[in-house]
Amino acid sequence: MDKEINWLLKEKYFGKPNKNFYKDIERLKAGEPLDYVIGFIEFLNCKIDLSKKPLIPRKETEFWVEKAIEEIGRVFCDRKKHGFSVLDIFAGSGCIGLAILRDFRKRLPAGMQAKVFFAEKNHKAIEQIKINCSLNKIKPARYKIIRSNIFSNVEGKYDFIFANPPYIPKKNRNKLQVSVLNFEPKLALFGGSDGLFYIRKFLKNARNHLNLNGIIFMEFDGSTGSPQVPPQKKKIEGLIKKYRYSNYEFHKDQYNKWRWISIET
Fold first, then answer.
1. Residues in Cβ contact with 14 at an 8 Å cutoff, skipping those fewer than 6 apart
2. Strand ranges in the chain using DSSP code E only, listed in sequence order
């Protein structure tokens, strides 16, 4: 707790405590996540406001998104396109799409543009995305927000699709930290009994919204599982084959756990 209090004092109050600081300490003692109390988090050089209480961006997500952005850079240079489009689905705070927009804002030559479409069904998350686009000075022409239950209102095709779906099995809820379970949005955490409810729907339809030679990047449960409960990785591989994706690769995060997959069409 002392470490969290010191970090709160430094990040939010710049080392100068006041009456609100002591109120925030009570919030921490009640179990509220530090990032919510501070009010924002850094994600790949973006400032992500958390005032609407979206899912807090994780370091694991930051790690793989950075790797995916590097891959986009390589693919983009190879194709020499005039620009590219990205669908950030299950967008939450918008951190993934914002990281892409910010990274490519200076990287692309004049006349070339990356445009991100944020797809999210929760109205609070949609408001959060608007706040974060404004906070990070993203021009309105470079993004669009779509209220959509997975692909229900998504039209057209994209060069890249990023997905961080709810993937925690409900049976594992007792394994979560109390602060996560009590304060973070459950709709952004749980993916049905086996954690694959949204992943199944996503993979079934994603290819219909991907341009030729496009790439899907998706996060999934990085736990290793057990002989009695096979890892999510194996089940996802089965879904990939079922829906006839052929070129794919699983990747590990910075903690050496399987965490994300890239799928090319």
1. none
2. 40-43, 46-49, 83-89, 113-120, 143-147, 158-163, 210-219, 247-252, 258-264
Residue 143 has a CB neighbour count (10 Å cut-off) of 22
pLDDT in 10s for each residue of the chain, 265 residues: 889 999 898 999 899 999 999 999 999 999 999 999 999 999 999 999 999 999 999 999 999 999 999 999 887 766 656 789 999 999 999 999 999 999 998 777 666 789 999 999 999 999 999 999 999 999 999 999 999 999 999 999 999 999 999 999 999 999 999 999 999 999 999 999 999 999 999 999 999 999 999 999 999 997 655 444 457 999 999 999 999 998 999 999 999 999 999 999 8
Q: Which amino acid is at 185?
A: P
Q: What is the CATH number of domain 53-264?
A: 3.40.50.150
Q: Strand (E) positions, 98-165?
A: 113-120, 143-147, 158-163
| Domain locations along the chain | 53-264
Q: Is there a contact between 54 and 188 (Cβ–Cβ < 8 Å)? A: yes
Give the whole-angstrom CA distance, residue 203 versus residue 207: 7
Stated as kind and residue range, the H or E segment containing 96 is helix 95-107
Would residue 190 be called left, alpha or beta, if left means φ above 0 and alpha means ψ between -120 and 50 degrees?
A: beta
Give me the residues paired with residue 39 across strands. Answer: none
Q: Give the pair of three-digit tokens for residue 233.
A: 């990785």
Interhelix angle 19-29/2-13, nearest 10 degrees: 140
